[in-house]
Specification:
globular, two-stranded antiparallel ribbon, 2 helices, two-stranded antiparallel sheet
Length: 96
């Protein structure tokens, strides 16, 4: 059981101080350019909080994945814009 931060992370530092298990680590360039989560230390905040703190504060949809590889904050969850509507609007903008 562990979360994972992927390349879409913008290194905003919001998640790092909230992690109760101190599992979140800053980027270590050049190998990694975004925050990482130590899988051995990550508890998904179980026993500490009702919701994973990293996911609750992350401003980037899809930047944090659960153990199954699913986005904890999937597309549209933070903006309220369904992905298909966003794609439609972007296509309209490009067509102009």
């Amino acid at each position: 059981m562990a979360y994972r931060i992927i390349d879409s992370c913008v290194n905003c530092w919001a998640c790092e101080p909230l992690c109760p298990s101190e599992a979140i680590r800053p980027a270590a360039p050049p190998a990694v350019t975004h925050f990482t989560i130590d899988a051995r230390a990550c508890t998904e905040c179980e026993g500490d909080h009702a919701d994973p703190q990293c996911a609750s504060i992350c401003p980037v949809e899809g930047a944090i994945l659960d153990a199954a590889g699913e986005a904890v904050n999937p597309a549209g969850s933070l903006t309220g814009i369904p992905p298909e509507r966003l794609a439609q609007v972007m296509a309209e903008i490009r067509a102009r």
